[in-house]
Amino acid sequence: MSGEPESANGKRVSLSKTTRSAAPDEVTQLLANWSQGDHAAFARLTPLIYEELRRLARHYMERQSPGHTLQTTALVNEAYLRLADQRQPNFAHRSHFFAVAAKAMRQILVDHARASLRLKRGAGADKVELDEAALISPEQPTAILDLDDALERLGTVDSRAARGVELRYFGGLNQDEIAEVLKVSTMTVQRDWVFAKAWLYAELHRAA
User: For residue 119, with 0-12 CB atoms within 10 Å meaning exposed, 13-18 middle and 19 or more buried, which class applies?
Assistant: First the structure.
């Protein structure tokens, strides 16, 4: 079975020689054109999206221990397919697209953790250390589910702070990009992160 995903029209997309870095403005314009029904824009966007997703997934997965069961390619392909399966795409800009990508990657990791738990019952909870470099490991299914639950609870306390954590960790967005998505200042993003980190640390260690 090929590791390459299929595009929205069902055709397999060859990415081995077409991937390249793209300027943010180029991605934003192609996303806008795709949102307006331009299928040619989607064809041009596909390798750029895939390359960006691969970069984000690699950044996330390289922090994990060797031999983790969720491979970078699998994470990228699943995220791509979920994003490509948009009946009515509506992306305002590049950061908006990767905000949606962050939510998709979070859900994929949660689904993977639940599947892992079904195969590994009774393993016990792992203690979670929360910092800017690494929140959890995909090899700790209980931990990622605890984090997901804690983020849901944080969302009821401060939805913007919870969104910022999701964008930062699962989407790989920097402070300026998070500020653009949330339509706040970078200083507000920084304050939200300080609060969210402390709140989640307390919640996760209380649950451990």
Answer: exposed
